[in-house]
Amino acid sequence: DKGNHRHFMEKEIYEQPEVISHALSRYMDFASNTISDNINAIDFKATSSLAISACGTAYLAGLVGKYWFERYARLPVEIDVASEFRYREMPLSPSQAALFISQSGETADTLASLRYCKDHGLKIGAVVNVRESTIARESDAIFPIMAGPEIGVASTKAFTCQLAVLASLALGAGKARGTISAEQERELVRHLAEMPRIMSRVLNLIQPQMESLSRELSKCRDVLYLGRGTSFPLAMEGALKLKEISYIHAEGYAAGELKHGPIALIDENMPVIVIAPFDRFFDKTVSNMQEVAARGGRIIFITDEAGAAASKLPTMATIVLPDVNEIIAPMIFSLPIQLLAYHTAVFMGTDVDQPRNLAKSVTVE
Ligand code: M6R
């Protein structure tokens, strides 16, 4: 049932504040602002490094997770798309743990990677939506993302719920490994607790601007997305979402890679979507934006209030989100990316929930 929404995808975008709060309350205790003990189903303290494998959007969630595990838990992460991971013959040891991220829990390549790790004696954790799935069944520890059924082929709420769970796991790992203090833990959990409310506010705030911008995007043949740090996987997620449902060619790049190739594509026909919260990467990303502007590129700047105040560069549009803590920025910045892709596809009249050539669950190689 789509309720009063035109598509499942739209419904699922707007469900995010609610389902994220379910995900968070499973892994944190808001009375004490601490991470719950259930994340210890993996012994992160005894783990020498973490291998993560997944496909598509789930892989991009894992890439954000890598930044968090390394930063907050000082736990090295090796991550790859499952179709490569399963055949790489990667050297593994039982001192490592492995995490598999999958909405459906049935993705063939992800399952094959899981079995490879299991054969090498690693402890297996699954970040899944469908708890009765094969990946969940074959894992030692299940971390449900609590998103509820996701019908739209383009993943939206599963992505942000995966992020919420990965943030919880990274903080829990940090706590177990003694790399975050009790005070940091309480402060970060407090920020995460505020996220559902901020998400609702942002969805209402940006909707009209996303709808009008989508008219512009629908005329383009190619779109480039740029970001640094955790905004780099988001840039790739933005590009994936747009290509899946609008069939516009899009690429996501690390902003620092611009000079190493993609800058050759910049002209007045190519919109560049820059994802840049006012974090420690902001100045670097803005200097990449400057290079785009100097070549007549049209910039759609997705930033926050502090970022909008700090940059004076001319843009085609600036999307201003509220200033939020770094730990929740990837989830909040997912919202304009999802809505831009959604409205562009609606405007172009494509089959948003069932885009051509795609299946919700890829159970063959
Ligand atoms: O069910 P899974 O999470 O394992 O699926 C992985 C990918 O097939 C999936 O995320 C795909 O990339 C989506 N269509 C993205 O919107």
TrEMBL record:
It catalyses: D-fructose 6-phosphate + L-glutamine = D-glucosamine 6-phosphate + L-glutamate. It comes from Rhizobium tibeticum. The lineage of its organism: Bacteria, Pseudomonadati, Pseudomonadota, Alphaproteobacteria, Hyphomicrobiales. It is an enzyme of class 2 (transferase). It is found in: Cytoplasm. The active site is at residue 360. Homodimer. This is Glutamine--fructose-6-phosphate aminotransferase [isomerizing]. The keyword Repeat applies.
